[in-house]
């Protein structure tokens, strides 16, 4: 058994890069974070898990991320949600277990709300629903607001590499996809959430708010007290794989 790769053609000539392990379902689908890609530690660990267990697995890069085409600055929550749904339609047979990290947790929720019959369960790592409105926008400094007003883009410093371009279009579009404003997030599938207590990007209380809002009764929230945002240490990966094992069973 091996992992194969390809590109999914999207409207406007965009191409989404993907990698797939054929195996027993439900298919585990990796949904990465903001400015992340499918070559990261957790995504690769899941590929190794799928190959070892004979499980179906799909990972991909959103528009403007990793190996996919497009300018990151042109990306929006709308577009990345559509990417996830296109991958479900084109590359997944039957039910899926959505594994979303950070922004990918938000995209996973949006995909599950759009196609509930396709989602068997979800495993979310430091999920960041509504992050553009609730986590990012309040922290934009005055000079950043001035840049957005003047140029439509602000270069946000990042601990993980080069500054991230944050566009006015991303912020405005993200506000339209808010899910935490409602009293209930209409997802009935089982959900497992792994959250670091020392996460500087997604406060544990934010992830807990999602856990409390989910409609389904089968929700487990695990706080890794000394965990960071990435949760990519060996012990964190072990927790992730255990949660995915439970979700696919």
TrEMBL record:
Gene Ontology molecular functions: mycophenolic acid acyl-glucuronide esterase activity; palmitoyl-(protein) hydrolase activity
Class in the EC hierarchy, top level: hydrolase
Pfam family, one: Abhydrolase_1
Entry EC number(s): 3.1.1.93, 3.1.2.22
Domain annotation AB hydrolase-1: ranges: 50-131
Catalytic activity: S-hexadecanoyl-L-cysteinyl-[protein] + H2O = L-cysteinyl-[protein] + hexadecanoate + H(+); mycophenolic acid O-acyl-beta-D-glucuronide + H2O = mycophenolate + D-glucuronate + H(+)
InterPro entries: AB_hydrolase_1, AB_hydrolase_fold, ABHD10_acyl-thioesterase
Domain of life: Bacteria
Entry keywords, A to Z: Hydrolase, Transit peptide
Main function: Acts as an acyl-protein thioesterase that hydrolyzes fatty acids from acylated residues in proteins. Regulates the mitochondrial S-depalmitoylation of the nucleophilic active site residue of peroxiredoxin-5/PRDX5, a key antioxidant protein, therefore modulating mitochondrial antioxidant ability. Also catalyzes the deglucuronidation of mycophenolic acid acyl-glucuronide, an active metabolite of the immunosuppressant drug mycophenolate.
Name of the protein: Palmitoyl-protein thioesterase ABHD10, mitochondrial
Species in which this protein is naturally found: Phenylobacterium zucineum (strain HLK1)
């Amino acid at each position: 058994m091996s992992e194969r790769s390809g590109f999914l053609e999207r409207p406007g000539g965009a191409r989404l890069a993907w990698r797939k392990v054929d195996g027993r379902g439900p298919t585990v689908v990796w949904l990465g974070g903001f400015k992340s890609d499918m070559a990261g530690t957790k995504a690769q660990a899941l590929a190794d898990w799928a190959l070892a267990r004979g499980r179906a697995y799909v990972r991909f890069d959103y528009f403007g991320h990793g190996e996919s085409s497009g300018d990151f600055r042109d990306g929006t929550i709308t577009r990345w949600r559509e990417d996830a749904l296109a991958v479900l339609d084109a590359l997944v047979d039957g039910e899926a277990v959505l594994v979303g990290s950070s922004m990918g947790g938000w995209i996973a929720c949006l995909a599950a709300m759009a196609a509930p019959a396709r989602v068997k369960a979800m495993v979310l790592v430091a999920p960041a629903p509504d992050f553009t409105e609730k986590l990012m926008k309040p922290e934009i400094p005055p000079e950043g607001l001035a840049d957005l007003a003047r140029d439509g883009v602000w270069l946000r410093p990042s601990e993980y590499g080069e500054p991230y371009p944050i566009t006015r279009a991303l912020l405005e579009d993200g506000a339209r996809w808010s899910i935490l404003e409602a009293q209930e997030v209409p997802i009935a599938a089982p959900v497992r959430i792994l959250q670091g207590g020392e996460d500087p990007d997604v406060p544990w209380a934010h992830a807990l708010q999602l856990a409390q809002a989910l409609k389904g009764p089968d929700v487990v929230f695990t706080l890794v007290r000394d965990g960071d945002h990435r949760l990519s240490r060996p012990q964190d990966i072990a927790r992730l794989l255990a949660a995915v094992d439970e979700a696919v069973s």
